[in-house]
Amino acid sequence: MPIYLDNAATSHPKPESVYRAVDHALREIGTSPGRGGYRRGLDATRIVFGARESLAELFGIKDSSRLAFTSSATEALNLAIAGMLRPGDHAVTTTMEHNSVSRPLRLAEKRGSSITRIPCDRSGFLNPRDLAAALRADTRLIVLSHCSNVTGTVQLLAEIGHLATKSGVPLLVDAAQTAGVMPIDVTAMGISLLAAPGHKGLLGPQGTGFLYIAEGLELPPLVVGGTGGHSSGEEQPEEMPDRFESGTLNTPGIAGLRAGVEFILSTGIETIRKKEMSLARHLVEGLGRLRGITLYGPAPEKERGGIVSFTVEGRDPAMLGFTLDQEYDIEVRTGLHCAPWAHRTIGTYPAGTIRVSPGWFTTDQEIETFLSTMHEIIKT
Ligand SMILES: Cc1ncc(COP(=O)(O)O)c(C=O)c1O
Q1: For the chain, what is the domain count?
Q2: Among 27, 132, 274, 305, which one is most buried in terms of CB atoms within 10 A?
Q3: Can you give the C-alpha Rg of the chain in angstroms?
Q4: Does 104 sit in the ligand 1 pocket, CB within 6 Å?
């Protein structure tokens, strides 16, 4: 098996319980939630409800019906951004965002909203004071990623949430790189909208994700249609979560996601975080000892996510990634990682970086093998 170091794209492998849950939902349950009143239909409904409850427990969400399943973090972010911003509204974001945030914002801008992009420093860090200074009377949304998918830089979310609450501006957090690996409590952190994928740190399958919408926030759905219930109404129901869940849900995916979240709850998020930190430290220290390497992101003593990005003097990141795969069976990501703004911020545009992202199942031995391989490649 190759050494897989691209968990920031999709986590792999998954816990055994995730494979079993997907297989069970597909093979034994088969039916769809909220549709048939027969017993297996109700079992499907229970699976989806259970997943909602487990996610609510993990993120400090008091009412699990405020959480709508989506096919990805991207869909959740589109739903939140398109729903919150009307022509004439102002939104604040950063220069470290993934295209899943920056493109929906660009679209909103073309439709008449105005966007302020606050520059982050060369390590990708946003100074909350700059955010405070960018807020205006017409600011309707603050949107940012908790942790950069390029540099692993973690923003001061609790402080930003406090600022958002104080100024009465809803905060939308892209938790693509932290959901399942760092503690997030929407209530304590002042988060109004939380978007996350199911297939990364939450250890579920691809094709899953969710958006949490705080009580009191009204936004229109992106997609309308059949919701299973309320069938007599000509218009989309107001009730959560049906309002945002038109069409048949991905029950096998959500069953797997539920198993992934239960694995996280039983392992403990602090244990997962500790392991991620230890692997990242191993990588940063090891790469830091190699000749000609430039590391990006937070200084070693600062808080960070598990992602480590670097370049090698005089070498093309894409070619290095190709060599790692073809000659050494090591899978890393190279290039811009769907975040061109972030690379302009850290000075690696347009070639990008080599990004290494271990996951829960990565071992120290695998990191050692990667480091000694890099040593060998650089020597030649
Ligand atoms: C920071 C960030 N935001 C959003 C996304 C989009 O996630 P998804 O592909 O599940 O829609 C990613 C995925 O790489 C990401 O890293």
Answers
A1: 2
A2: 305
A3: 21
A4: no
